[in-house]
Amino acid sequence: MIKKQNRKYLYKFLFVFTVIFSTNQVHASSLIDLLKALVGHPVFKQSHLYTSNDDIIITAQDGINLHANIFVPTSGLDYYPTIIFINSWGLDEYEYLTEAAKFAEQGYIVLSYSTRGFGNSGGKIATAGEQDINDVSAVIDYLLANYPVDESNIGLAGVSYGSGISLLSAAHEPRINAVAAMSTWGSLTESLYGHQSPRLIWGALLTGLGYLTGDPSDEIAKNYIGLLKQERIAEITQWANQRSPLNYIDKLNQNAVPIYLSNNFGDNLFQPNSVLKLYKALTGPKLLDLNQGTHAVGEVLGMGKAQHHVWKNVHAWFDHWLKGEQNGITNKKPVEMEIKFGEYEQFDNWPSADISQTTLYLHEKELDGDGDMKTTPYSPWWPKTDTIYSGLDTLASTGIPLISYMTEDYLDLPIISSMPLISTVNAIRWESDWLEEKMYLRGISKIHLNVTPSKSDALLVAYLYDVNWAGIGTLITHAPYTILNATPNETIEIDIDLVATAYDVPQGHYLALVIDTADILYSSPTTDLYKIKVNYENKINNTLTLSNK
């Protein structure tokens, strides 16, 4: 549970959080139970269908104690399928009480434990390291020794931190038979340092939450500060690679564990690109949901809702793979994407044969302050440049961290910006023609640029907007890119993968691509002022390649 001395700092936040969301899509009683658990008053739902025990202590391989709770069905079977829930970062064994009770009612043994360093468990936070993987094995040993567990039907599940430990454990522990990984990651390296760009806000949030709610190892703050300073990068990326499921794809495929993956398009902690890579690389049974919203919010607040998209799939996934129920979960199309402000759309696979690439060529800025994006290459008679100057942020933005993507998902409030008001000094903007028909953006769009930085280090942030007749742009997606150790005033080529999206651009709107040098989500590699020249020459193209249906 949250450290007693720190609980008071959470009360006001939790109250506001409840007021905002309990009146919308969230099942209010489940949310209240969750909030009670967060502040040290867990609620165990009573039922004649199971018994529960909140006094479970499991001894890990290195001798530390892991605190847990368990639900055991009372139907009298010899053995039961079993689910192990692993807590999110900053939470503990009580996070999943609502879902644990539901699964127990349906005939599962359900054990939830606090990972080392969190809740009442001993040890230091290991950040999904080897100790955490060994702890999963110790939990399975304990269950098999003390409860009527069906050894051939054990599943792991978790949101965020717990999802990563679940995937990593599935690569190393042969007794795991199914996984449900929600708000998960494929590459921790890419999540923390994609495009060489440290995640400023999310890194600070995780590091601070670790100290507020747990007992972190020294490496957590040390590595975060190292990323911000662009120091010890090889050491830190090696540390993160060891915690990346993609690094163990051969073992995952060898074990062929059925894996359900869920991630969110607005998740700026574990952005969906590496999850798409993980899904593509997996060869065993798999299912992927990409939802709207930000990190973990939908999954945590959706607990207890029978028709919640993700949790409904989690139940069906375990019912099929751990109980053998023929419920259709393996017959449905395996990839579902929730369209921003729309419904879910299904695909037979990913990458999908339904997706094509449309390349727009970036043209030099004109007198009206922006450049064009055309379907034909730009071949000027002589070399030309556009220049972006650092020093000030612009109105191009990812919004308020965490909050903007929550309100976008729950209240349909888009992240917007006025295109004419974006600085033409500190940013450059390219605009497409008016769309003659709706455009269906799906997946990862890409940018290719030929640039000349004035300094060795620089940050660029790209934003893709859907713009209406009034010049108001709705943010579709974005991505940072950090230039490091470049030779000043020499031209380099850079490639930027935008964060995956599912977005319909209406007929009569147009696309705008904006690039500036700052965003609150990302740390700049330098405090020096710099300028970036975008170069246009014959047969040297700057492009935006759209992934669209």
TrEMBL record:
Keywords: Hydrolase, Signal. Residues 315-535 form the Xaa-Pro dipeptidyl-peptidase C-terminal domain. Residues 1-28 form the signal peptide. Pfam families: Peptidase_S15, PepX_C. InterPro entries: AB_hydrolase_fold, FrsA_esterase, Galactose-bd-like_sf, Xaa-Pro-like_dom, Xaa-Pro_dipept_C. One of its GO terms (molecular function) is dipeptidyl-peptidase activity. PANTHER family: DIENELACTONE HYDROLASE DOMAIN-CONTAINING PROTEIN-RELATED, POLYKETIDE TRANSFERASE AF380. This is Putative hydrolase, CocE/NonD family. It comes from Pseudoalteromonas denitrificans DSM 6059.
